Each structure stands twice: as C-alpha cells, then as structure tokens.
Amino acid sequence: MNRRLSLFNVTSLVIGFAFLYLPILLLMIYSFNASRLVTVWGGFSTQWYGALFRNEALMEAAWVTVRIALLSATLATILGTLAALALTRYGRFPGRTLFTGMVYAPMVMPEVITGLSLLLFFVAIDLDRGFWTITLAHTTLTMCFVTVVVQSRLMTFDRSLEEAAMDLGAPPLRTFFSVTLPLIAPSIVAGFLLAFTLSMDDLVIASFNAGPGATTLPIKIYSQVRLGLSPEVNAASTILIGIVTLGVIGATLLSKCSVLRSRRNAH
Amino acid sequence: MVERSLPRRLTAGLVPAIPYLWLGGLFLVPFLIVLKISLSDAAVAQPPYKPVFEWGDITGFFGALDFENFELLTQDDLYFRATLSSVRIAAVSTLLLLLVGFPIAYGMARAPERYRSLLVALVILPFWTSFLIRIYAWVAILKPEGLLTQALTGMGLISQPLDILNTETAVFIGIVYAYLPFMVLPLYATLEKMDDTLLEAALDLGSPPWRSFWTITVPLAMPGIVAGSLLCFIPAVGEFVIPDLLGGSETLMIGRQLWSEFFSNRDWPLASAVAILLLIILVVPIVIYRDVEARRVEARP
C-alpha cells in the first residue's frame, strides 16, 4: 500500500483532532483558575481541588458511583462473556434469534426508554430504588457491550487449540479454563473497563433508577451544571479524565503485551 | 460441544441460559410493562402506582387496555412537533457529522500504516471521557461571555458577544462533537480496506479528482456511510442531555419530552406512551442498522 498524505488530509486531521481535544483541554486548564468565574482567567490555583475534597456530598456520590461501577462491571463481564460464548460456540440453540435481538437492542435503544422501562419494572416487583436498582440497570446495559467485545475475539482466534485439548480428553470446562480463557483474557479485561466507564458515566438511566438512598456523581454534576458553571465541576471532571486516560493507556499496554506474547509463542 | 451425559448437558446448557434469563427478565419484561402501562388509565397508574400483577392471569393483564394515552398524544400537537423536530435535528446532525467525519476518516486511512492505530486510539479516547463533562465543556465555550466570544473578540473578528448557547446551533455543535467517534470509526474501517488501484486507474484515464471521489470512493465507502449515519441518527433522535444543557427552552425533542413528562409532570402512563412513540419512530432505522451490521461482520476477511 503506497499512500500519500495530501495537504488536504493533513489539514483535516489537524482540525478534526483540535475540535475533539480543545474543549476538554480548556476545561482542564480552567479547573486551575483562581477566579470563581469559569470563563475569566484569574491566575493559577489549586483551590478548587481542595474545595472538591471538602465537599462531602460530592465525595459521597463519587464513592457510590465507583461501588456501583465495580459491581455492575463485574456482573456484566460474567454475563457478557457467557452470552458471547453462547453466540459463538453453541450454533443454533432454540430462541437464538430473540437472544441476539436482546443483546443488540439495549445498545441502540435510547437511554430514556431503557431507564423508564427498568424503573417501571422495579416498581412493579416492589424493589426500592437506590443502589441496587442502579446496579441491576447498569449490569443489563453494559453486559451487551461486553458481549460484543468478547464475541469479536472469540470469532477470530484459532479453534484448533480448543479442538486439540478436547481430542486429548480434556473435559469442556477444563478446556475453557486452560485454553479458551487465557486466549480471550485481554478482551474480557477490555470489556470490563468499558462496562466500568459506561457505568461511571451514565446519567439518564441512573436518574430514572436512583432513589433517596443513592445519588451518583453524574446526577450530582448534572444538577450543579443546571444551576450554572462551577469550577468545582471542572476540577472533578479533570480528575475523572485523568483516571480514564491512565486506564486507557494501561489497557492499551496490556493488550500490546498480550499480542506480543502470543506472537512470540506462535514462532 | 456435543455432550452425551445428562449432568454435562445441564452444565453446558447453563452458558446460554444464564444471560438469556437475565436479559429476558431485565430487558424484555420491563419493555412489556412499558407497553402495558402506556395502555392503562392514568388514574390506575398514577404514582404511587401499583400495577397488580396477577401472574398467570394473562387475560387480566391484557384486558382493560385502552388507547387513551395515545389519543392524548395525537390531540396535543406538542408531541407531533417534538417528533418532527427530533427527526429533523437528528437528520441535520447526521449530515453535519458526515461532512465533518469523512475528511477525518479519509485522512486516517491515508496516514502511514504505523500511525493508524495511534490515530484510532486518539479518536476513541474522548469517547471514554464522560459524556456529560464533554457537553458541559461546550457550555463554557458557547456562553455569551464565554471562551469563543473572548477568543474571537481578541482576534478582532467580532464586536458583539456571540449568542449561540440555548439555540439549535448549539445542539448541532453538541451532537456533532459527542457523536463524532461513532461516525469516524465505521467510515475509517471501510476506507482503510479500499483498493487504491481503482483510483490510480481512474487517474491514469484522466478522471479529475473530484469525479473519482464521487464515482469510486463514495460508492465503495457506502457500507461505512450507512453504518455511521445510523449509529449517529438513532441515539440522536432520543437525545436528552444535549438539548437540555445546550438547547433553549424552545428546543423540542422527544427524549426531553419523555423526561419532563416523567420527572416534572409525574404522568407515568403518558411518559410510557411517549417511549412507545419514540420506539415506533426508531424501529425501521434499528432494523436496517441490524442488517447492515450483520452484513458488515460477515464481510470481514
């Protein structure tokens, strides 16, 4: 492939990436602004970070959000991996079409509908709204994303390894844990990280399913933003962006390592 | 995985059964409840609403249905206008996304091989930062006294503050910004696989570049164009956060209508009816999207 980058290509890339990154960078820069006004620069200061850590309601919400994200991402990873195995290793089982539909539907369904339908369901079965309802809702939404990530990995790798293990007399479970699982591990980790981020980030579904007992960080941020701009929100956002960036870099390195290792093993 | 012994068969059957039951219980059943409540009386279903489920009494469940809520939707032209304006805003945004996204995806596909995965990572990274925060960032930029006005006044380009926030323009900017990765990635995937020899042949035969673009590049990129457009259009129709934070009070969108019906007016049956209406609008694009995706997955080498 001999391709040349024209001036037009370079320009569109530069403008495109500037458009993607400038707003986020501005937000981060203004979190170190000494002035209370978000759009007026008043010198460098880290005071908003201090204010943030002293803001107990916000810290409490952050802690709840992290707990929900950890729990729902764990459940979603288990369920999503099982669903991916069902779709790739089970051929045509009864009800497969409905199953595929249910896996793909929550991903394109507008969040307002998913949020509302789950809430009405929880009210119908008399489950109090709060920590658990948000966790169940997030698990349902994010497991579908895990399924897609793990499924694409299961479809591309070499089935002969699994077959060899079975021919040598390994029972299916043993084959799964000693052959399949190590091979798809990076995609499972990626799926978990994706589920965790989606849960941390969700406002709409959490709003429908939150109760007096539990408020998440996005709900808190949203109610503050509606009242106007606040430097504390900038500070909270910057911390979140920092955590996510580190996580993505970590995940990238992890998958690079595993690719290298599998290449080495192949030779 | 064909097993002969019964206990083995049972454990093997658990693999599809567990996620199946979960999705059935927490996705399909709730959905049927929305359908049911949208067809029930406001009086019965007012919060603290207690739908009495007599399990097994299916006739009771589907009895006493009425279309009153849907009649309400047709009587008040607010919903009709919200539907139209949601579809219009989503369609215009999708078109803008194509115009903005295509050059970026094209540039990525033309970049040297060793940089491509880095560029893909750079497109995905903003998607990992909170959606709410990315929209919030634009509030500070678009405010009348905000950063954009300051920058342009500083350059001497404008003398009056820009009044973009709380207009439809701001909603377009927000949707284009938030959904750009969804448009760029499918486009890039098809453009990267494109066979360059066709373009070279056209060039040798004396075709001007713009003509090669329209007759070769665009038709070949069609699967990516369709997938990216639907991937942006479908959620944009039901978008709530962007019109709420960037749009004015007169920006009508159906997702926002559902939200206010539920949270402000506390009319759950009407909110359910709006949800069903939104689904009816989206059912055709969703089905088309599923078919396009299935074909795209099969077409992979």
TrEMBL record, chain A:
Stated family: Belongs to the binding-protein-dependent transport system permease family. CysTW subfamily.
Species: Microvirga terrae
Protein name: ABC transporter permease
Residues in ABC transmembrane type-1 domain copies: 62-252
PROSITE patterns given in the database record: ABC_TM1
Acetylation is among the record's keywords: no
Keywords noted in UniProt: Cell membrane, Membrane, Transmembrane, Transmembrane helix, Transport
Predominant localisation class: membrane
From TrEMBL, chain B:
SUPFAM superfamilies: MetI-like
Family: Belongs to the binding-protein-dependent transport system permease family. CysTW subfamily.
InterPro entries assigned: MetI-like, MetI-like_sf
Transmembrane segments: 20-39, 87-106, 118-139, 170-191, 212-237, 268-289
Name the record gives this protein: ABC transporter permease subunit
Source organism of the structure: Microvirga terrae
Domain of life: Bacteria
High-level lineage: Bacteria, Pseudomonadati, Pseudomonadota, Alphaproteobacteria, Hyphomicrobiales
Domain ABC transmembrane type-1 as annotated: residue spans: 83-289
Alphabetized CDD domains for the sequence: TM_PBP2 (cd06261)
Presence of the UniProt keyword Transmembrane in the record: yes
